[in-house]
Amino acid sequence: MKNPGRIAAALLVFLLSTASFQTPARGQTSSPVPKLTARQRAERIRELPEEERRWLADYVAPIILADERDLFLQLPEPYQREAFKADFWKRRERDGLPPPFGPGYQQRYEHLRQIAAEEYDGIDSDAGRMVVRLGEPASIETMSDCSEAFREAEIWDYPTPSGSGFTVHLFYRPSFGGPRRLWLPGDTGIFQTSSCLSTFEQACGMAAGGLPSFSSSSPCPGHAVPRTCNSACRAARAASDIQFRGIAEGAAIAAAPVVSTEGLEGLWSRYASLPSAGARPIAVESPGRPPAVAAAPAASSAEVTDAADASPVSASQDIERRIHDLPKKYRDWLDLAGPLLSLPELVEFLHLPASGRDAYIRKFWKRHAHTK
What's the CA gap between 223 and 198, in Å, rounded? Predict the structure, then answer.
């Protein structure tokens, strides 16, 4: 790979395009909480009591914001962290917040995790991650009449925050009865191989009667193509909306939903500044000045942070650095597989230990072979 920063540069475009997932919500101000480096964060997570480590790194990981996480990790006393938890839920239970936030959210979140695990392919699946973050969709249209065209496709509708419309997402199952996958622009795995379709427009045109089944102008002349797929045109409109959003669609399952962090500075002032026998000084990063932190082991894959955890520029710089540090054979693989990788997949790969990369690559190609 001649330019190890090429993929990182391309991802900068993605990160900037997802700024709407990362910029402050109305009423949200920039937080005075000092930022932790990845190494500091990993060290402090390891030092947490087991129960609090599970709460932070597992239970609320899909919904906690970067500033909140860094504040939690810099609170030296258990009672301070308990106060943080109370404020964490209170901030998400305020009146007037879009669903699934609002009064009763703490109990609702527990329910969302349960149904994601039991009804939506598991918490770590694409469908489960969306349900945990955004709640259950307002409606799911199962495209059963289009089984000849699409692989168990579904159209999910979520009301927009204003309530004036819906945000639409497409899911499909790469293998029969398998976990759903979120459809992203450029993914042709949603189409049945036997249909010879490669675009939603083709499916819509044939469903509308524009292309006879055995016409020479059909996608694959001489092969039967679906003529009863009534939801094909709606799927085409949904795909068009998703393509307009771009690969930022992936942030729906990777980024924590933004809520106002108003009041976070109050917690920092009240708790983090209190003296404590066990507290350590916090090294605040500033431009041109390396963080004053003792050497610590590199973060493990369990401490992977999403692109939503940092500003677009810093996330892109971190990705570029990690790609540059890879052995050449892995950089060459990224050069080849880059167009097929989603952002969460790339971040996951870059945070893997050296011993896990070859297995990841084998599984990656096997997974994509099944979608052809």
Answer: 14
> 266: closest CA among 33, 24, 26?
33
* Torsion from C-alpha of 338, 340, 346, 352, nearest 10 degrees: -100
Place of tokens 């909140």: 68
Alpha-carbon separation of residue 271 from 44, 83, 276, 278 (angstroms): 17, 9, 10, 14
Residue 272 pLDDT greater than 70, yes or no:
no
pTM of the model: 0.65
Q: Residue 161 is which amino acid?
A: P
> Quick one: tokens of 243?
């393509």
- Long-range contacts (CB closer than 8 Å, 24 or more residues apart) made by 141-144: 141/231, 141/234, 143/229, 143/231, 143/232, 143/235
Which of 179, 193, 161, 187 lies closest to 242, judged by CA?
187
- Residues 87 and 81: their CA atoms lie apart, in Å, by 10
Q: Name the residue with tokens 């029969």.
A: 176
With residue 170 as reference, give the H or E element that holds it.
strand 166-172
Question: In this predicted model, what pLDDT tens digit does every residue of 207-221 receive, in sequence order?
Answer: 665 444 444 455 555
pLDDT at position 58:
94
Residues 211/218, Cβ–Cβ less than 8 Å: yes
Q: How far apart are CA 242 and CA 336, in angstroms?
A: 25
